[in-house]
From TrEMBL:
Species whose genome carries this gene: Apolygus lucorum
Protein name: Uncharacterized protein
Keywords attached to this entry: Glycoprotein, Membrane, Transmembrane, Transmembrane helix
PANTHER family reported for this sequence: PROMININ PROM PROTEIN, PROMININ-LIKE PROTEIN
Top-level taxon in the UniProt lineage: Eukaryota
InterPro entries reported for this sequence: Prominin
């Protein structure tokens, strides 16, 4: 059979919406099974009525879950005292159910901490300029590598530091300087070339064969000389340019080296400040919300558990139902008290009526005795027994159940319900007090951990102070040496300037001689060429000596400085391995194993035994690795271990001590249960039976009795007796109108109130039975599954606190392992220093000797050309009748003024 019902209810955040039109199947046992519904949770606060024929059938409404549910069988089990497990009441486990029905409830996730930015690095002056500039001297380095191919002589450096050179060391030096000694020997030879060629002018020249085209040869020589002079001009400009560039680099080197050392000091301070920030201020930022949540357990732990209880058991509905029952019980008790009062009043009227009827009965008996014999049969026919009261309220007064309802502790029930409400509403406060000691212990351990991290950061203060002191000492030692080189550089620049000007002067003389020769003033051109050659002869020796000295200084600078500073990708043979050894050797200020000491480790971590080669530092800083990992600062303070919460055993142990016990919590105490049971027993009264007893007639038919007395009085022969009977009839009618009518009114009032009481008791008893059933289910759930629910929410609360610490741990580990603490500035400082020393200083110095040698070679090539021109001009002068000496004397007297050329008699050109 099918029964029309409402549709499936829609659940919105635990609240039900009444369904509309659905179909339920009714089986033979008269239990309902929702075939397509899911049983979700018990809602015993409302009954849905279904009509079937003339009768009425009630079905407790259940929100549905994934199984069939038969309320009748469970109510039967509860009434018989058979225990029902939690899954039968509520379905699946509380953990899965809470997860399925908790979209926004529960402890919730921790707030994402916005850690403040790390302290910014200062502006480093040494890294301001561009590290890349065009290097026109690049290929000169290849020449130096050929001259001096040997790597840096580290063993000789150590011998020199010991100030104990020996014979093998001297031989080793000579072996290394073979290339420069060869260059020195070659320079000496080449320095004699020009003077030798010039001295050839002092010897007698062989008579040249007659030339068929002397003017063509002259023009050819002049053209060659002009080309060579153009190349010589390029070389002289290169000399002056490289000399000036080298001077600028050397002049700015002392200040730049000081800036590099200052920037290194600032970088170490900035890096240490960042690490200290991670250990102190970042921890404060993480613990602030953690301590706030620890102090707010009432809202973050207590209220979620309270909400879970409501979601799982509808505890709020049970308490509301109990409040309604208490209010209804109060009304019932008040109504019962009114009924009892009315019954007492009615019983008093019954007594008055009985007295009245007894008096009438005695009068009637007296009249019957006075009847004469002939009237005796008529008098005996008078029914005196009709003067009686049939109505009585003794069944009300004697009803123990009504008296029980009257005397029931309604106020005690209301107080018990209020107490249950207080237990429920005070659950968050109870949980807050229960976990207070454990939470305070966690907060105390967090403060202790803050002190430990602050103590760990003190070690970095020592790094700042010691590294600052050492770097300042290094600057005080190194910068004065550069200042002294700066003073020497002034004289080097003067010598280089003079050398360049000498070449320019020679170039001017040769250009002037060429111009004179082209203009026909051969007599002035010859002495000019001779003067230029004399200057070249005298200056070439000095220039070759200067070029060798410059080559020696620049070559050793390139080999011992620039090749060490070269990037291993550019120069893998030298690389940073030799540089690391040189730095460790020069920087070592202590005795020990020379192969294991590290100047960088001693400078930064104050532990020279830490393997920290300078080459590794530069390589990792070029790759933008972190300062913490590059400089092995974990040997000072292992930050990753210090912030690893898995090692914070005290905090973890105290967090696990945050425990909530709901198994022993009595929401509905024995007092409430006893009061409800008392109320239930009182409500079991059969009011219908009492009302049916009161439904009978109050008295016999007194009006008929009065009429009967009047009829008999008319038939009596004795007038006196007849008058007495008429008087009794009048009194009977008067009693009927007064006493009996009042009694009838009280009776109707009692019946009305009993009917009203019956209408109230039935639904109240039904609701009471449901509430008792729901209470047992709720208390069963709390006793058997409250621990798992509390444990789940407690774990979420603990996880929330741990999440703040995890965020701190992740922030610190990410910060010390990403670009925010990169040591890239170290590489930039090194690159800038290399640029300053090599590109700005040593490379121009090498360019100077290269251009000087280039000019000398040009002069060597120019010298024979000039000699040929001098010879040509001399021969041409002889043909004109003027000797070379006369031409020279005449030119000297006349200031080498040009004379008109002789007429050309034969010009083949």
């Amino acid at each position: 059979m099918k029964l029309d019902c409402w549709k499936r209810p829609k659940i919105e955040k635990g609240r039900e919406v009444k369904p509309e039109g659905a179909v339920l199947n009714l089986n033979s046992d008269e239990t309902f099974q929702g075939e397509s519904w899911e049983l979700k949770e018990v809602v015993p606060s409302e009954d849905f009525a279904f009509s079937r024929g003339s009768g009425e059938m009630r079905l407790i409404h259940w929100q549905l879950r994934s199984q069939r549910f038969e309320p009748a069988s469970r109510e039967k089990k509860l009434s018989e005292g058979i225990p029902i497990d939690r899954d039968e009441w509520f379905g699946s486990s509380p953990e899965s159910e809470a997860a399925a029905r908790r979209p926004g409830s529960g402890v919730g996730t921790a707030v994402t901490i916005n850690f403040g930015p790390l302290p910014k690095n200062r502006h480093y002056l040494s890294t301001s300029g561009s590290p890349f500039t065009l290097n026109p001297y690049y290929h000169i380095k290849e020449v130096l590598h050929i001259i001096h191919p040997s790597p840096f002589p580290l063993d000789l450096l150590r011998e020199a530091l010991k100030e104990d050179p020996n014979g093998p060391a001297v031989l080793r030096i000579i072996e290394l300087e073979v290339g420069f000694l060869s260059i020195l020997f070659l320079s000496i030879l080449l320095s004699m070339v020009i003077p030798g060629m010039v001295l050839s002018l002092c010897t007698k020249q062989p008579e040249p064969p007659p030339s068929c085209a002397p003017d063509c040869k002259r023009k050819t020589l002049v053209f060659i000389l002009q080309v060579l002079l153009a190349l010589l001009l390029l070389g002289s400009v290169g000399m002056l340019w490289s000399n000036e560039e080298c001077s600028r680099g050397m002049t700015s080197s002392p200040a730049f080296v000081g800036e590099v050392i200052n920037d290194s000091k600032d970088f170490l301070e900035d890096s240490v400040n960042k690490l200290q920030y991670l250990l102190t201020e970042a921890f404060d930022q993480a613990t602030a919300p953690a301590i706030k949540d620890l102090n707010d357990a009432e809202n973050l732990l207590g209220q979620p558990i309270q909400i879970e209880l409501v979601l799982e058991t509808r505890l709020d509905a049970a308490l509301d139902s109990l409040s309604a029952i208490a209010a209804g019980a109060k009304e019932v008790c008040a109504q019962v008290a009114g009924i009892l009062r009315s019954s007492v009043e009615a019983e008093q009227l019954v007594g008055v009526a009985k007295n009245k009827f007894d008096d009438l009965r005695s009068q009637l008996d007296s009249v019957k005795k006075r009847c004469k014999m002939r009237d005796r049969p008529l008098c005996d026919s008078i029914p005196s027994r009709l003067l009686e009261i049939k109505f009585s309220t003794r069944m009300i007064a004697n009803s123990s159940q009504l008296e029980y309802l009257k005397q029931a502790g309604v106020d005690s029930l209301a107080a018990a319900v209020t107490e249950a409400h207080a237990v429920f509403t005070g659950l968050p406060s109870k949980i807050e007090k229960e976990t207070k000691s454990a939470r305070q212990a966690v907060a105390s351990e967090l403060l202790n951990k803050k002190s430990e991290l602050a103590t760990s950061s003190v070690a970095f203060d020592q790094i700042k102070s010691r590294s600052k002191m050492k770097l300042l000492d290094l600057r005080a030692t190194v910068v004065p040496h550069f200042e002294s080189l700066k003073q020497l550089e002034y004289w080097r620049w003067m010598v280089g300037l003079v050398a360049g000007l000498v070449v320019v002067y020679v170039w001017v003389l040769l250009v002037g001689a060429t111009c004179c020769g082209c203009c026909g003033a051969e007599r002035s051109s010859t002495p000019t060429l001779i003067v230029a050659l004399v200057v070249v002869s005298l200056g070439s020796v000095s220039l070759w000596f200067l070029s060798f000295i410059t080559l020696y200084i620049g070559g050793h600078g390139e080999n011992h400085v620039c090749r060490l500073l070269r990037d291993p990708e550019v120069n893998p043979e030298g690389g940073h391995s030799a540089l690391s050894s040189v730095v460790d050797t020069l920087g070592a200020a202590y005795d020990g194993d020379e192969e294991s000491r590290s100047y960088v480790a001693d400078l930064v971590v104050q532990n020279h035994s830490v393997p920290l080669p300078f080459e590794n530092v530069l390589r990792e800083c070029k790759a933008s690795n972190t300062t913490y990992n590059t400089f092995h600062l974990s040997t000072v303070t292992d930050i990753e271990k210090a912030v690893n919460i898995n090692h914070w055993t005290n905090i973890c142990n105290h967090l696990q001590g945050v425990h909530v016990n709901l198994a022993q919590m009595q929401i509905f105490g024995p007092k409430l249960n006893s009061r409800l049971e008392e109320l239930r027993q009182g409500l079991l009264i059969n009011v219908s039976h009492i009302r049916s007893q009161l439904a009978g007639p109050t008295t016999s038919d007194l009006d008929a009795l009065a009429n009967h007395l009047n009829d008999i009085a008319k038939e009596l022969s004795d007038v006196t007796t007849s008058a007495f009977l008429d008087s009794i009839a009048v009194k009977t009618r008067k009693a009927l109108e007064t006493v009996v009518q009042d009694l009838e009114n009280h009776k109707e009032n009692l019946v009305y109130h009993l009917t009203a009481l019956e209408l109230k008791i039935s639904p109240l008893l039904h609701k009471l039975n449901q509430s008792i059933t729901h209470m047992k289910a709720v208390q069963f759930y709390v006793n058997n599954h409250g621990m798992s629910l509390a444990h789940q929410n407690t774990n979420m609360y603990i996880a929330r606190i741990k999440n703040y610490l995890d965020q701190y741990h992740n922030f610190v580990t990410n910060s010390i392992n990403n670009g925010s603490t990169s040591c890239r500035p170290v590489w930039e400082m090194f690159s800038s220093l290399r640029e300053q020393l090599c590109r700005q200083t040593l490379d121009p110095l090498n360019g100077f000797w290269f251009m000087t040698i280039y000019c000398l070679i040009m002069l060597i090539i120019i010298t024979p050309v000039c000699l040929k021109l001098i010879n040509y001009y001399n021969n041409n002068s002889e043909e004109s009748g003027i000797s070379a000496s006369d031409s020279f004397i005449t030119g000297e007297m006349l200031g080498w003024s040009a004379r008109p050329p002789p007429p050309q008699t034969n010009n083949d050109w």
